[in-house]
């Protein structure tokens, strides 16, 4: 008696059709968007020449300009540090509201989710524009913008960590007569402390990069010097600022990676 030959396939017919339809929709969307925006490169053969001309104007970097960007650079780091600290303070209660196992009710759960969504949906530059109008130009607007942008990131990821904790420990602390604050300090935070520290350091790393451009909207930092140099067509000074920003970003990423390694 002949046996029926069977062939292994990664996806069944239904999933193959679904993947094909999704791919087709994505391709049509990209092509339609490209045509609608009338995107195109005019005379692409001039691009290498223009890039070479810009690099020639930037070389050599204006080393003497470094003395004028030390203070704005320190201000940039301070903006990122204060913004991250403010976000961390705000993110803990937001995470407790956004976590299903610690939120008091459905209303507070959705309130936490709304805060997370709004914070993450608005770009740092938009937050900075809003707070520049509110507080005026300067590093305060930048620090508050960084804080409001970071709350959603920290609140979402920390809330997910809280949902994964061993709730038995929380019930044990509560059964011993602990208050709500003590339950938080001794039942919840110890379990999410490594994630909290790691996420804070990672967010600080991101905020260093974000804070370098806040000066373009008047929110302080080294971006102010970069904006002035670009407006003055001082390309050698622009090169100096870009090199300094690159060095700071690389240094903070290395420090962030090293510190997260210690936390793990």
Jot down its keywords.
264 residues, mainly alpha, MetI-like fold, globular
Explain this structure to me?
The structure is a single chain. The chain has 264 residues and is mostly helical. It has 10 helices and no strands. Helix 4 packs across helix 6. The longest helix has 33 residues, at 66-98.
Short description:
The chain is mainly alpha-helical. The protein has helices at 13-36, 47-58, 66-98, 106-121, 124-135, 139-163, 167-175, 180-211, 222-231, 235-263.
Give the CATH H-level superfamily. Answer: MetI-like
Strand content: under 5%
Task: State the domain count.
Answer: 1
Q: How many beta strands in the DSSP annotation?
A: 0
Radius of gyration: 25 Å
